[in-house]
Structure formats: C-alpha cells, structure tokens
Amino acid sequence: MPDRVDIRLLAARDSTAALTQLLHRAYEPLARQGLNFTAATQPVETTQQRAAEGQCFVAESRGRIVGTVTVCGPYDLAVAPWSAGVAAFRDRDTAHFHQFAVDPDHQRQGIGRRLVAACERWARERGYKRLALDTAEPAADLRALYHRLGYVDVAQVQWAGKTYRSVIMEKALDHSPLREQLRLLARYHLWATRELLRHVEQLPEADYRRDLGLFFESVHGTLNHLLLAEHELWYRRFAEGASAPTALDREIEPDRRALRERLVEAALAWLPLIEVWPESRLLGKLDYRRSDGEPMTLPFAATLTHVFNHGTHHRGQVTAALTALGRACPELDLVRMLQQEAARP
Predict the structure, then answer these.
(1) Is residue 1 part of a domain?
(2) CB 118 within 8 A of CB 200
(3) Torsion of the alpha carbons at 257, 146, 38 and 131, rounded to the nearest 10
(4) What's the whole-number mean pLDDT along residues 149-175?
C-alpha cells in the first residue's frame, strides 16, 4: 500500500533547501534532454522568491516533502515586465501556477493531480475564472499530464535564455454541464481524427487517391472536405462570423502529409476556444453569413455539436473505405477513448 501523502501549505519549519533539491531531482530528466528549466538548477534564493509570489503547496509523506506547486494571481507589469507578452499572466480573471514538481520516486501516484487540484480550489475560492501555466513545448509527458487535467494550449512564447519555446495552457474553472459536454466532444474529435489518420497513413498512395465511390470520391478527397468544412467554413464562422464562398469539393491541400498535419491542427483549434468563450455565448446564438452571403442565426452550442458530428460522419466513410480495401481500421467509438483515458495513470 502506498504511503499516505498529505497536501498542505508550505510552513515556516519547511526547509527551502530541501524544496530546491526536490525541484532539481524532478527536472533533472528534462535537463538531460537539453531543456534548461529554471527549476532544474535554481538556487535556494530563487525557490524562496518564487514560492513567495503566491500560495505554495507541498505534498508530504512520512515527514518528507515529495511534491510542490505555487499558485498566484496576475502579475503586475510594473513588477514583472517579462510578462508583457503573455496575456494570461496579466489577465485579472486568470490565476496561474508554477514551480510544480513531484519527486521522481513518488510520480505516477496521483500526487501531481492533487497539487494542481489544490491550485484550482485556491483560484476558484478567490473568484478567478481561469487557471494558466507555461511549460516547454518539447516536454511531452508534462504537456500530456496537463491535457488530461483539462488544460489546453492557448499561446506560445519564447522566454529569454531558454533553449525551447514554451506553451501557455489554460483551463476554465467553471464546471457547467454544457461546457463539460463541449470539452468532451472536442477532445473526442481530436482523438478520433488522430486515430483515423494513423491508419490512413498506412495506405499506399494509389489506394489513398483512388475513387472508392465515396461522396467526395477518394480518401484524400474526403479528408480535404473535412479540412475545408471544419477550418475554412465553420471555424471562421465561429471565430470571425463569416466564411468565404467556396465549393465543398475544392482541394485545399494537395500534399498528403501537410493535409494530415492541418487536420490535427484544425481539431486542436477548438479546445482553447471552448475554454475562453463565456457561458453566455455558449448558451446564445451563432450569427454568421453562409458561403452564399445569406445571414443565418442558429443555436451556438448545437451548431458546434454539428461540427463535431460532421467529422464523425465523414470519418465513418473513410473507415468503411479502409475495410473495403482490406486494411485495418481504427475503433473510433467514444467509449473507446473513455476507456483509454480511464486506464492512464
């Protein structure tokens, strides 16, 4: 049975030197990858300064600190001019956390999740609507953890002196059923897109571009339509209120590899929007102009649901084509994604 771990506030009796050593141990694997995180080498004085910027939480097991995180409110530009390029760190409705670490010997026990949950409670109790963070773009495991906790990419920044670009991630702190449902659908849309493309990648070029009797003829044609409808039409309608006239069978990306990358980027683009749209907009109407210029007004959330359903419809066509070609096809049921998520540590 794992040792009991308590999450509590940093106390005066706690050793800042021990906290610094914990940070060094936790970030040492990332430092070996060439990612010069501040926490990997910072002196005790920096640990003290960063912990004092807000509320520092620690995880304690058998009298030893095995995890830590600090959460705080927006930065004042006069005090922290470096924050000028990151709106999330200065927005009055957004808190953020940093100096987050779990001892390598205690990772994969849920301690990190509990520390982040403590930050979320702290922020919610003080009226903040969002919680933000930044991490290295190449730190795949860390980013995956944050994604599982509901954080989405909203921006990128290149901090001075760093060997990597950082990703700014945010999470809305309200738990309205509507937003939760849209988050689920967007997450599924991204997961199913990636799963389908992973199998399509195995298709020989001739089969990939062959007319298979689909509505948009080939697998390539169907994927092009998915990109056009999602990005050129619906995304622009939600983000800009209009979409340019276009034929639904227009090839907007002839290159197979580029098309695959753009489809994933298009699916990713919905996640940050769902996090930052106010509840009033989710409950309201979508006003836009169709490709023929006609003005339309539709229920906002229901129309966004249509976008994700449209993707499911055409992914089903591609899956049927893979089966007809005698190729392996993915299991794209929503419950399959939920099962995979439940199995993650």
Answers:
(1) no
(2) no
(3) 120
(4) 88
> Does residue 305 or residue 148 have the better pLDDT?
305
Range of the structural domain that residue 241 is part of: 177-343
Q: What is the DSSP string of 80-133?
A: -GGGGG-GGGT-TTEEEEEEEEE-GGGTTSSHHHHHHHHHHHHHHHTT-SEEEE
- CA pair distance 124, 236, nearest whole angstrom: 32
Q: What is the CATH number of the domain that holds 281?
A: 1.20.120.450
40 neighbors 88 (Cβ within 8 angstroms): no
Flag whether the pTM goes above 0.70: no
Amino acid letter, 5: V
Which tens digit of pLDDT belongs to each residue from 276-312?
A: 787 888 999 999 888 777 899 999 999 999 999 999 9
- One domain, residues 164 and 15: yes
Q: CB of 268 within 8 A of CB of 153?
A: yes
Query: In 9-40, which positions are buried (b, 16+ CB within 10 angstroms) versus exposed (e)?
Result: ebeeebeeeebbebbbebbeebeeeebebbbb
CA–CA separation, 45 vs 51, rounded Å?
10
* Pairwise CA distance, residues 43 & 84, whole Å: 25
Number of structural domains (the chain) is 2
295 Cβ neighbours under 8 A, 6+ residues apart? 287, 288, 289
Average confidence (pLDDT) over 239-253? 85
Domain end marker among 157, 172, 187: 172
Length, in residues, of the chain:
345
Task: Give how far Cα 100 sits from Cα of 27, 70, 135, 142, Å.
Answer: 10, 7, 10, 10
What pLDDT was estimated at residue 186?
94
Please check whether residue 74 lies inside any domain of the structure: yes
The last residue of one of the domains, among 128, 151, 172, is 172
Return the amino acid letter for 63.
G
d(CA 23, CA 31): 12
**Tens of pLDDT, residues 197-217:** 999 999 999 999 999 999 999
Q: Which residues does residue 153 pair with via DSSP β-bridges, in sequence order?
A: 169
The residues that bridge with 102 in the sheet, in sequence order, are 67
